[in-house]
Amino acid sequence: MALQPVWKMVPDLMKNSKYQREGQGPECTVERDGKKYEIRMVHSTDEKTVQEIQELMEETFVKEEVDPIEVLKAAIDGRLFDGSKDIARYRLYVARDEAGKIQSVYTGGMVGMAVAAFPGEAMFMGAYGITRPESQRQGIVRELYISSMMQAAADAHSQGKKLSMIAGECTWSSERAWNSVGRRRVYVQTGPNEYSELRYVQPALNFDVKTGLPTEDAGEASEHIMVDFLEGEPDKGRISTSVESIHKWCNTWPRNAFENQAAYDAHVQYVAHLRSEFNIFMLMNGPLRLLSAAERDQLRAEGATINEYTEADREEEGPEISASPRGRSEEL
Ligand SMILES: CC(C)(COP(=O)(O)OP(=O)(O)OC[C@H]1O[C@@H](n2cnc3c(N)ncnc32)[C@H](O)[C@@H]1OP(=O)(O)O)[C@@H](O)C(=O)NCCC(=O)NCCS
Q: Was domain 5-312 assigned CATH 3.40.630.30?
């Protein structure tokens, strides 16, 4: 099988690393100025680690965005919470400091492209990235990202697939961290010298088994979708398919989770409706542009109009990351 495109990207990411990596693979020790972190993949049997990660997630994100711990454990095992096989290979990487405390976690999964138009291709969905406030801006999540990419390439390879793109639902405050590993927000041309960001809505994560619709406490959330194409030009077909893959993996429950067929149908319909709104906006407008924060600043300076998807900028997720370093207390 041809070389995974990730292996062209990983050396570039490593070139800009602030750390010395001891070990060639995803699990390694990273060291900088005498400070060491152990990078390890998480196993579901490691109850203490899974619990520590769940707590970190609950402290960091709004409730609707975090799955219950049983769902997390099953996913690490490659299963859904009902015991059936998951369609994605979900992986979690953690960096522990010398005292053994988790300072950073990065999670995501390799999943086959949802439609037949891209046979043999897989995507990586970046799920969560968290670094404790006291360890932010030290380049640690970047190291976990590098490990995750190596792992996703190996997972894709073992299933005979080519990992062709990366996508994730991102908070507004983390944009520059993901820009630094190659992921960018997605825009379409909506007028002469005018670009508008795609309007992505993350479907609810919890559903009423009687009606198939989201439970009262589980609303949907606007998010910035950020993508990276590992080879070739960005295209709308793959973006739409990657969103479908995300929805199938994260937001679609199996038939046997619901009490009857009508509830299941209503559930599938609910997710499909959100996706079609996203697709219509993308397909009805002009060419795609992937734009980093710095690229948009440049375009604006040159007179372009950029329409941002501000519904996805949530105050409770902390201030937007700025290009200039600030006091740690302001960052979260
Ligand atoms: C987003 C987050 C995970 C980044 O973790 P981190 O370990 O601080 O990130 P890194 O230090 O590895 O960042 C890599 C690069 O990203 C950019 N970056 C990261 N944080 C930045 C900041 N506050 N301001 C500007 N650039 C930043 C920089 O280019 C940085 O390298 P540099 O410091 O040498 O310039 C962390 O800020 C966090 O936990 N935020 C809260 C939770 C969250 O929103 N997670 C994202 C969910 S999608």
A: yes
